Amino acid sequence: MNQLEKKLQRAIQHYMNGELKPAADLSAKLARKLPNHPGLLQLRGEIAQNQGKDVMAEDLFRKAIIVSPQDSQPHYRLANVLFARQQLEDSILYYNKSLALDPSYWQARVNLGLAYRGTGQHQIAKEHFEQALQQNPSLTSVFCYLIDLKLSLGELASVTDMASSIEAMAQRCIQNDAETDFLPLIYLAPLLSLPDGLLRGLLDKLNRLYTVSNQSPPQLDLDSNRKIRIGYLSGDFGDHPISHVLWDVFETHDHEQFTINAYSTATRKSDTDKIYIEHIRKYCDDYVDLSALSLPQARKKIIADEIDILINLSGYMSPQCIQISAMQPAPLQAYWLGHGGGLGLSFIDYVIADKIVIPPGDEDSYREAILRLPESYHCAPTPLLPECSKQRSDYGLSETAFVFCAFNNPNKIDSAVFDSWMNILRRVADSQIWLSSPGKDDSIKRNFSAEAIKRGINPDRLVYAARVPDKLEHLARHSLADLFIDTFTYSASTTAIDALWSGLPILTRAGNNFFSRIGASHSTHVGLEQMVCDNTQAFEDRAVMLAQDPDALAEIKNKLAQGRVEQPLFQPARFCAHLEQGYRSMWQRHCDASPPATIEIEAINAA
Fold first, then answer.
1. What's the whole-number mean pLDDT along residues 240-247?
2. How far is the C-alpha of 155 from the C-alpha of 303, rounded, in Å?
3. Is the pTM value of this prediction over 0.85?
4. What CATH class has 228-378+578-600?
């Protein structure tokens, strides 16, 4: 091995050790003597990408492709850069080129599946995940991606048949020390009704994995009377439900009493994303893009900002957010919104809830302490509502039928709730159900049609709503439906808020955990407690009654119209006052050297 090759190996070792600056410096010197070395070009591209220099990385990988066009690696690495920049169609092109050169390259196949999923091409994504699992059956995260897609595509029977395989996979993840990539399984657990014992086992193992570094939180000035610094951490700032529901919160926060920072772990660049991000920027003291930083750098930045309470808004939807929280960059941390529930991790001090999603007496089910707000735990935006300019027929609906609406994410639809919905259609002649179809292919329609036929229902009674880019159009089209019917295992969240704000009442069935009580919380806090059912039969009977009794439904809609104005769900200033009192109480306990414990916030007097 000559001297140049030895230096190249040393640069590679620096990179493998996470020493990016010495790796970049040494590889740049080598490039003067080896400008067209394919391995060096790729190494420099990898270093640049990890330093957040994606333009430079793209240029280096394109040069590597020119120098070594038959090598699958530079095509794959260029695709990764494009994928990270949300240039999904371009990334698909280069993942396919990489696989054409090396069909056994399962990593490229997995990422290709993710890119297709990101573009809404769910059926093609599913096929690539299945092929990747054939090549490498031990890929836990890919197995979870596949299950999620099967749920999203309405493959109800297939998911039910996989129950034993899912539980076996969870058991393997708990028992096998080498299994560490199971965050997606924890995220899917409520959708799959994973047994509590298995979920606890996964959370206990994850807790051990993430607390091994024993990093201590920073020690800040323990003054309970000073301005409190709040950091919101998320990978979902942009055109995402998290940003939708937080619209009024950022605007309403008391900046005399609180410093408000937002920390983004993902880069979202669409025009619609920019609208939400600019709004958040406008009402935050600082908006910080962490996406180009390493995890230690992200921790260092949050510590430098002296954040007192860091609020994780994404939970298991963002591994980066979990990893940053695990490094304890703030004295106190809480989990809020995201996918609901708690995180079950020792470095999260509080979960923000209300008395419906976490009733008094359920505290022992959570590793975190409970910050229980006096009314809704969930913020709700109050945008201006446009008149709907379209007719039912524009969306494929009958002008005369009773229209049940279920715009829930399709992955929340399981066999039990689909059975119930079809029972309702059977009892209400000529009614229709309006379902969400966010993907670009017709697979979900084919699958749900087959399931409807199994249950003796004409599939023409199932109508599908494509995603529309204009949120106001989406809100307006709710007026064409008559009644929203909820899912059971994991109830509607932002979807329910959209319906209620649009004047469409929701019928929900309260379950026995946080996830299945979200709809109950929303309905209760808009004054519609009678729309919360205790069991499936009551749910079906009330849906049928309201469909057959126009006066009863009109009374409910009138009560909703009044509740939108008078009840707490859509009062952002009141909500924010309760939330901020919660933050003060958390900080007061910390300043008093008291450990996290259940905090009950009292309701402020009505204005």
1. 94
2. 45
3. yes
4. alpha beta
